[in-house]
Amino acid sequence: MRLLKKLVLLLVVLAAAVYAWGISLPREHSASSRIQLTASRDSVWAVVRAFGDYPKWDADFKSSVKGERLNGHETWVQDAGGMTMTVALTKVQPPSLLVTEIVTDETSQWGGIWTYAITAVGAGTEITITEDGWIKSPIFRVMMKLMGQHSTMDGVLKHLGARFGEQVTPEHVKTDNGR
After folding, report:
1. How much is the pLDDT for 148?
2. Domains and CATH numbers, the chain
């Protein structure tokens, strides 16, 4: 019984320490990752813009279904990484810029904006994804810190490279954790 009390106390202290660490981390963050592809900008744009096809080339996406328009914006309901979210396309400038925003409400634990900048580089393309996000829960902030701010973007970029038959390593070009 004494060992059990010590174990419970240890778990409480550990949970409090993780929570305190999370509170010390900023709510907002910004990060960018980029890759270079040999494919043309128009080809890359076509794949990135086709939200309904994401599950065909990115295994993290279980589904991506067109939703109802919201404030004049096209939306997509996506199941990615075990989480369902609605994403609004807030700015679409073919073939170089796409800005998406996670639709949130007062109960949302996280949200943010992804900006896809697609630039022709010679015969190929450079694509940069910038995430300007926020995380409400201190526990989720710790999880993001441990997984890395770039992990979700890097996953999408690696899958995008594979879609074009290329093995890519995303470059982290920006990290700003709100301070």
Report:
1. 86
2. 2-176 (3.30.530.20)
